[in-house]
Specification:
CATH superfamily of the largest domain: Enolase-like C-terminal domain
Strand order of the largest sheet: 2-3-4-5-6-7
Radius of gyration: 20 Å
Number of helices: 13
Largest sheet: 6 strands, parallel
Number of strands: 9
Shape: globular
Helix content: 40-55%
Distance between the termini: 62 Å
Length: 354
């Protein structure tokens, strides 16, 4: 019997793989059912705690342990987390804009995504902008959001991604221009290092703030919640400690009346982990998902994710309810890719003459 887990860190995948091998020294030969005990040992015993590398390694191992336990008991993971709190799981589409380089192309891609069934769309309209975004870049971003809103109409939710690229003053300046388009949320508007900056933006706009993909444990989320810096928390199942820790983060968020919206631009195993968490967390609101992923995803997981009316059904079991075809995975070996959100070719320009 085996369990699947997804451990990754974009641009640092081999570093995470090394951390997994180091944790192997502890895990091999131990009872896999003692998930809580293993999580605390892996997180608390090392002198060097926290951070994205250790968090990602623990996350993948933790997912695999939950998958294994669910299989051993013959039940879906969400039943082990307390059972279903929802009947369906609403998702927002990400990745629908790939290949679009102009405002008109992005708007057309948005319309196509809605035609394929999405009821909520997320994207980053800020091109190559940084902390001190230029006025032309602001005009382009606002025009892009306006064009997408005009294309999809008022019934589709728009989720504005910022990737932590703006200074607090500029994040507020942009937010006030976006408010007229009624975004569902404004994601990671400022860099993640200073929680007071995020709280300042939250107090300065009517758009709900979402953040948390670069927080790696409940300890990182606590000041975010205490300062009411977010309306939606976004822990990532591949970075923030896996299923064990995300369930606790969601419960902590519930005490502050904050929605649970897991960050998930990830692969199929992480998506299944998110589905089980979303099912079992009463404050779950919406799940990130990539409808258009790599062409071989469905072959790797033996079928496609089910969707209807902008939502997913409750996940299957036992365990996470997923098996991967290793032959398909071997046919697509790892290729390193560095992340750089400030590439000049990403620059978005305003429409001319409008």
């Amino acid at each position: 019997m085996h369990g699947w887990g997804e451990a990754t860190l974009e641009g640092k995948e081999q570093t995470v793989a090394a951390a997994v091998r180091e944790l192997e020294r502890y895990l091999v030969g131990r009872d896999p059912a003692q998930i809580e005990r293993h999580w605390h040992y892996m997180y608390e015993t090392p002198f060097w705690r926290g951070g994205p590398v250790l968090g990602s390694a623990i996350s993948g191992l933790d997912q695999a342990l939950w998958d294994l336990k669910g299989k051993a008991l013959g039940v879906p993971v969400y039943e082990l987390l307390g059972g279903a709190a929802h009947d369906r799981l609403r998702y927002y589409a990400n990745g629908w804009f790939h290949g679009a380089r102009s405002i008109d192309e992005i708007a057309a891609a948005a319309g196509a995504a809605v035609a394929r069934g999405a009821t909520a769309l997320k994207w980053d309209p800020f091109g190559a902008a940084g902390l001190f975004i230029e006025s032309e870049e602001i005009r382009a971003a606002v025009e892009c959001v306006a064009a997408v809103r005009e294309t999809v109409g008022p019934a589709v939710d728009l989720l504005i991604e910022v990737h932590g690229r703006l200074s607090p003053a500029n994040a507020i300046r942009v937010a006030r221009q976006l408010e007229r388009y009624d975004p569902f949320f404004y994601e990671e508007p400022v860099p993640p290092e200073q929680m007071a900056e995020l709280a300042l933006v939250a107090r300065s706009t009517s758009i709900p703030i979402a953040a948390g993909e670069r927080a790696y444990s409940k300890h990182d989320f606590r000041p975010m919640f205490e300062q009411q810096a977010v309306a939606y928390c976004q822990p990532d199942p591949c970075h923030a400690g896996g299923i064990t820790e995300l369930k606790k983060i969601a419960a902590l968020a519930e005490a502050y009346h904050i929605g649970f919206a897991p960050h998930n631009p990830n692969g199929p195993v992480a998506t299944r982990a998110c589905q089980h968490l979303a099912t079992a967390c009463p404050n779950f609101t919406i799940l990130e998902w990539l409808p258009e992923d790599v062409s071989w995803r469905d072959a790797a997981m033996g079928g496609a994710f089910e969707t209807a009316d902008g939502a997913m059904p409750l996940p299957p079991g036992p365990g996470l309810g997923i098996e991967l075809d290793e032959a398909v995975l071997r046919a697509h070996p790892y290729v390193p890719v560095d992340m750089n959100q400030y590439r000049e070719e990403r620059r978005l320009r305003p429409r001319r003459g409008r």
